[in-house]
User: Which sequence fits this backbone?
């Protein structure tokens, strides 16, 4: 069985540095995997990853120690179970706004009796080995995204849903939902307050907390706040930001 | 920001000529895009387009002035938001049969406070520019497909759902639902009556109306009726019809 | 119109031998299609088949007499109708646990008035010919997977849902749900009892019964029990088992 | 063993009607295959077909009676043998300008002792059956493209190369090479003369003759001249021409 | 007809800033295309671009003003003509070591009477319009890579080959060939001398000169030297370098 | 730097057990990689592997200890260097029939001064690390396929070409060339004699010898003969043979 680096860090009370994959390609994924991230999340919601790319990208991560995670498009059993069968060891699910939704996330990501995940870990079992079935419920990391006012209103109830491992904050959607400008880093005070509140409640309920950022400075600031997993910079963002820097340098006298 | 040709035509009270893409390929899409359509709709319901092809096909349309639209497979938030993030500027959603379904269509296609679309316009923002977030709710065109008896029964209520831009008639499904033979063009009188009724009610509520046709003659007849967007002939249909004509000519003495 | 071998066998009260496709590739699919199966099922649930591969795999089966079937990821109208439009003549739907779910399966797989399948059989009509629309409701084989305790509790009610053609047993999930070790072949007595009970009730209601197995010996035993379609060995399993045998032979003195 | 429709027609002294595939997609290929062509040629030279599409396109032709042929990119052993192994039963090779080149074409397309084709008919053997090896040298149709002044100068010598089955005229390149405007149909007199000369010499040497055309009228005229295989209209051309017709009809008053 | 930005800059005696695409993906290509490069080169030699990706990547560049170029794998007519037919307006050909090789590069990239390029500009003609055939010989930019001692020895003769537009220096291969460590930027003095010599001779013969660099500082230095096109940073390099920077920042106290 | 298992075994005078990949898919490749082979060869000659699949398949092998090798389509610099850049650590080149061809194989697979391989190990360097350039000439294993009478005639001269690591016998082509029935295992006496002769000469010149087989029994027999690498059973063959066994068992009473 492979080690799960994110869980190892958490056991040592350390913060995981998570990268983000938006390009549907296994070569960019492999380049990221060689770069030292603790985990990499394949974004099937806003990233343009399709199911064929998902498989080759998970394979491209397999030789590196980073934990392979997937942000699924929505709280639907089909894509969630598929990502797990393909070998994802962490699931980040958007828009968990109620106890019922949180419970369904656990149900879809857990075998009976804990949940109702259908059995057939085609690649997960191949890569992880024969013990996969017995350990998957304990190994898979379930992140519920807290990113709306509605979710904030239900926060404590959501956090008590058994089987949830962590929450994950999406600052852009949270900003939009709270009537603020959607941004990942330099959020408005209302949003910043919510970010701190969610962290505090998650820890109070014994859950871990992750959060999306754009730049490493904000990622570090949120680590300093106490977040347990911080994301920065997708592969696509690195290309865009890097090219922008080059243009600036090129045009400079 | 790109102009949206369909909206421009509508502002001038003109009818848009919409083409249809069923082949999951960017070269056929580009050939269609070079052919003068006002808009092209990538059919993810009955067409065989997958998510990887969706991206490359939207890219193949980018250099042409035609408005890129997607018919989504069903009223599901995942695929709808994904099509928007990939750059679709119009969404045609099948089987909108109730006020609740129409409202969900608006919700899935609109950022807060108008709806609950999740923020992350990965390609849409790249192509459209930094103003995308502020303008997307106004720019994206939402078509609710009216194609069942049930929808007809709820028509006025559906048409009052705030945020809906247009309806789109699917004559085949409408025919089936009304107990008639499924056909796109030469529909039975009951269906023709419904087609005219839907148009009249849409305009009465200030919405635009689009409709599917197979041949250009019927498309023109429906334009003459007052429809604001008419579809004809998919890429696949052009191949099949064109080859049939060749065979006939070849075998003729 | 193509013959549907599974239906032909059933009319003769014979058992169909079903193969399983988990590799998203048309060459492995074609190799399987040349191997003599009565039907082949493309697994979009646990197999790693994406929508692009689905199309090419269905095409790879078209020159052989085996019946092309698809196990869909979940009871969702989008993917089910899409598989049918692409040319599947059988649908195996996982996790049918209630009368309502069984009724929805029929609804999604049948044109009006029998159901609410949307009309647009893009490849199915191309391959099957102009009579597809009139005959599809009778030709498509609908399998409801019975694989939970909940489904067992509702079994007779589920089996009475009009339009259902057959049930399909997933021994692994059924085992998990009944508190047993998930396995396909050598199941615990409780599961074996359920397997026999489901068969007896299906036949009592005039439905056919299919079941998943891993090895041909168990497939034959289940045929002997009276099952009407038995599955064994996916393409991927053949590779893994074949390679394992080679390794053993290689290392033997 | 599959029948080879082109060879059957030739035995009856009839002309084969050949379609052309330029879009790298198996669905457009299958639509063409259902349209009644005697043969279909996958164009790997000017068409945008890649090696992955080649395989799925050949599979898409397998259920139809049309003969699957490939125009290879160039006189290179790798791609030629690969097309044959994938199941092509005809090879059209561009730019055969000398006896040596014609001889190499035969060598690359024939097993020893006739040539030096490497043995491993992976899909061809699968589809054609165990007799493939013994019959391939007789079954595969070898077309040498005659399309330059240089080839004209060597014509009789080229036509005597043992193993060649046919020549294939590319009117555009031939026009260019003769200093005329490149066109497929309405060629300048010098080119027309060459087209008739090549045909006459091919028949004199007992070879068959094929030719590329754009429209069916010119294809028929060339059939009337005595050509044994005439090509018209690629899938892409059908889309472009069909869409152009629609635009004209749409804009007509 | 599209403008060719590189030729425009050259007419104004300005230096073009060229980006490099190594990831076989149209989304990363489009992100690069939105970033302001004067030209982008799709690397089919060392980059991992396949023929299917080539098409979608060229399409992804079509909406931007940057000139689409391809570095072909080798001096082979098949891939070179294919890149041109797919829409490349510049060809960078590796390892041109002799007059004969330079002449063949011109031959493969030029229609008769200038060369022997086969006619069939499937996508190039579609995108560029009906004048493509008449102007292609003048529009396509032909770069011969000078990157070996052998080429240096023949330099003046190579530069006199009619039809060549430019040379392109590969500092790594040039270094290896001159017995130095392969590096792109900080080359050994022998190599630097060669780089300056090649530039001087190219200009003396009226040819333009391009060169590969890794960092923008060296690109600017080479522009200052007089190079007419300088390359820096592939998409893949931007990901690797950007991720490395993030790791450093993350680990910094 | 990764260990190269084949070289390790050879240093211990042991025989490597090589598997074969003919299906262009990364999942079947990964399943093979998990099965214990010492090396796996991706067959780009007779297998249907395209360049896109090559990359994902090499990635699918990266987490396993088996040595990734590629059989290239032909002795062409483009595809050979591309396979190396993508990460192949062994190259099997078909149809090496002369000293010149053997020398070219070494040239294409070796950096200067040993050869003329162009520098740009995009994925090889990423996966192998910064020392790749300095060690590649020593690490890459070069197999020249000896499979014709012509090669036999030149055998000793070929074997003396500096830089060659091994030969690889293709029994089918060798049989054809010697006028025998093409078969992999139970070859005619003339071929068997050649197989033993080649082995003896290879060892006499200090080279290793590999050979293709179909079944494990023949593989073992050839190991017993002294061959240093023996191949058996492609992924596709495992499917076909496995399915055939199942059919036999199914039909048995």
Assistant:
């Amino acid at each position: 069985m492979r080690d799960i680096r994110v869980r190892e860090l958490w056991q040592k009370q350390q913060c995981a540095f998570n990268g983000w994959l938006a390009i549907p390609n296994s070569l960019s994924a492999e380049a990221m995997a060689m770069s030292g991230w603790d985990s990499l999340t394949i974004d099937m919601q806003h990233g343009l990853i399709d199911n064929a790319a998902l498989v080759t990208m998970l394979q491209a991560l397999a030789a590196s120690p980073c934990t392979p995670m997937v942000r699924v498009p929505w709280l639907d059993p089909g894509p969630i179970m598929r990502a797990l069968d393909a070998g994802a060891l962490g699931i980040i699910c958007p828009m968990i706004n109620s106890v019922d939704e949180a419970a369904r996330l656990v149900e879809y990501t857990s075998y009976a009796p804990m949940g109702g995940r259908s059995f057939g870990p085609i690649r997960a079992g191949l890569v992880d080995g024969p013990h996969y079935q017995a350990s998957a419920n304990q190994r898979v990391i379930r992140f519920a995204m807290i990113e709306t006012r509605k979710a904030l209103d239900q926060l404590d109830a959501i956090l008590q849903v058994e089987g949830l491992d962590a929450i994950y904050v999406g600052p852009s959607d949270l900003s939009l939902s709270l009537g603020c400008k959607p941004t990942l880093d330099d959020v408005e005070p209302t949003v910043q307050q919510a970010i701190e509140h969610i962290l505090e409640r998650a820890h109070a309920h014994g859950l871990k907390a992750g959060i999306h950022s754009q730049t490493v400075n904000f990622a570090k600031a949120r680590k300093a706040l106490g977040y347990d997993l911080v994301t920065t910079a997708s592969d696509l963002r690195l290309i865009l930001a890097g090219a922008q820097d080059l243009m600036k340098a090129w045009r400079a006298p």
Q: What stands out?
A: Chain F touches chain E at residues 50-52, 55, 76-79, 81-82, 85-86, 111-113, 116, 118-123, 126, 133 (CB under 8 Å). Chain F has one domain: 5-251. The radius of gyration of chain F is 18 Å. The mean pLDDT of chain F is 97.
